[in-house]
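Annotators were shown the component list below and the corresponding predicted structure, then asked to write short factual statements about the assembly.
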Amino acid sequence: MLNLCPEGIRRRVLGYLSERFGFDVALLDPWELYLSESARQKVFLGPKTVFPLDRTDTGGVLIARAGDTIKPATSFFQMFGRHVVRNIVHLQKDQVVVYCAGGDITLAPDQIGEAKLGFVMVAWEERPLGCGLLREGGVIENQVPKANRIRLERL
Amino acid sequence: MTDRVDSFACRYREIVDDYDAFTAALVRPPRNTFRVNTIKATIEETVEHFQSMGLSLTALPWYPEGFAVDGADALSATIERFLGTIYIGEAASMIPPLVIAEELRAAQVVLDACAAPGSKTTQAAAIMHNRGTIVANDRSYGRIRALQFNVHKFGAINTIITNYELHRFPRSTFDVIMLDAPCSSSGTVRKSPKLIDSWKLDVSLGYAERQMDLILRSFDMLNPGGTLVYSTCSIAPEENEGVVDYLLRNRSARVVPVALEEFRFSPGVTQWNGREFSPEVVHCGRVWPHHNDTDGFFVAKVSPC
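Structure shown to annotators:
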């Protein structure tokens, strides 16, 4: 069942997206934030609707998990990544193949740029690809959900 | 033509315009088609990238977002598939949201009554620019997971998902309802040649019973002035014109002519195996595989009188 996102979680998630990624959260105004019933505190972006929420199974697009730390979702970056302005890591072509297949990547120093440790948006050219976790040593820990992974045969 | 193809196709001999072309199309492999998901990408950037990879695209003349591509597996391992910027699917299945595009853009609330795995839901979301609300329903909990996956992947933000038998659906009304009904799939023999041997009239009639229930229930959930689009991937009149005729006999409804620029529909049949259907079913759209190089398909637009 969908539940409206409690105000405290809503503020935490939107504040995080704004502060860490420079994302203009007003872009989400046409829609509503919802919270899943699961323990994983999934925050979805869905329609402002008059349909009774207690009759729903789920809906919208996952934008983040709001546990102890906020984790942005790959689906958020794929939808809104063109409006992200910082903490972006650009991959080379061969790294894109590894990333899309679910592999971790060690970045060259010049690829890290001004990105800070923590969750980053991974991109290729102008395309936002998804979420990664930037660790010490320039390692991007892959955050692409297993079901979304794919072995690219051409790029 | 082989005997087995003829034994499948011969029941349509009286209602198809060119029987030889029809049977030849049935044994031709289907084209690999996709639509650009304009929620996430533009047509131009998608085409440009495919061309840079050396893929040969052919635009579908009746759908600016639709393309066919050479090579059986050309699309399955691309960055576009990873990103959800293309939806791979048979061209004919893209028709229902297109024939109600205007109604979708004006709608506040839309029901996709048998939504999984989500091809029409996500296409409708793109047409609606993610505004309004789509209630994507499917009776099968297992198929709901696939629907949810596609709603996420293709960015259908305006979609909520429900899991009801349609006759138990909560009391609600909608501006637009899409009913892509479960069917015998007799229009999909190009993709599934085994159907040529396995299709049986009894099976088709069994589906027709269910389709008649579904179309009445769906129609009853329409707002005044609303639109129901009924579709199947069957070419059997029992599952198509026969079902629309049943609706017309039991509700105050009218059939709105279907049209799509550059796409060839054949009119619905008004006589079949000794049965007379309402003259109004002529406004339904029958899709023969040889006319547009697609699967066989059927679509009807219905509104309350």
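Statements collected:
1. Residues 7-21 of chain A form the longest helix (15 residues).
2. Chain A touches chain B through 35 residues (CB under 8 Å).
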